[in-house]
Design brief:
Number of helices: 8
Largest sheet: 7 strands, mixed
Mean pLDDT: 92
Low-confidence stretches: none
Order of helices and strands: EHHEHEHEHEEEHHH
Structural class: alpha/beta
Shape: globular
Length: about 200
């Protein structure tokens, strides 16, 4: 069983440059018709990727150098637009699975949807985001380490300071981000509380 705690996330990085990348670009609206999230990963950034291929260019999600990456590097206001949960679901299912996102800022609902999946979204300054993206573009094999305990990101010999709200940080580090698992783990307390509530006992 996978450890639900998210304390240190390590792996290679993958950059996606650009501000205000919305959820429709992360996963196009036509894929919202699915009733399960399985298979969404292969369609992450599908239209952006197709447009770049037509222009004779390559999206980082199609670049063999970044395959298997676990840390997504982005810019400002990532995940804006509609509140679709499919966007983070596609990201965590791409390749071997993105396990952390580092960026300048995130749309609020997207951030919350990511936390609910155990996917940390941490912020860095604009200059640090640029440094990280540029470093990974030059050295795709470089191992990154996102440490929620020390609030630092390690990239080779370089260290960067990250920020994340205390509440979500605590949830992720303690493995309490999964609300369903929280309910199951406390089922006896739930049943005991229900037994004390009159309308669950037929008002007897």
């Amino acid at each position: 069983m996978e450890d639900p705690k998210r304390i240190v996330i390590s792996g290679r990085g993958i950059p996606v440059r650009g501000n205000d990348i919305d959820t429709d670009r992360i996963i196009p609206a036509r894929f919202l018709k699915t009733v399960v999230f399985e298979g969404l990963g292969e369609h992450a950034f599908e239209d952006d990727r197709a447009q770049l291929r037509e222009a004779g260019k390559s999206h980082s999600f199609d670049d063999a150098r970044f395959q298997g990456a676990r840390v997504l590097l982005v810019n400002k206001n990532f995940g804006c637009g509609s509140s679709r949960e499919h966007a983070p679901q596609a990201i965590v299912r791409w390749g071997k699975g993105i396990s952390a996102i580092v960026g300048e800022s995130f749309a609020e609902i997207f951030f919350g949807n990511c936390v609910a999946l155990g996917l940390p979204c941490v912020t860095v300054s604009a200059s640090d985001a640029e440094a990280l993206i540029s470093t990974v573009e030059r050295a795709p094999a470089l191992e990154l380490s996102v440490d929620l305990a020390t609030k630092t990101i390690r990239a080779g010999e370089e260290r960067y300071t990250l920020t994340i709200p205390d509440g979500p940080r605590k949830q992720l580090m303690e493995g309490r981000w999964d609300s369903t698992a929280e309910l199951v783990a406390n089922r006896e307390l739930i049943f005991a509380a229900a037994a004390r509530i009159p309308y669950f006992r037929g008002f007897t």
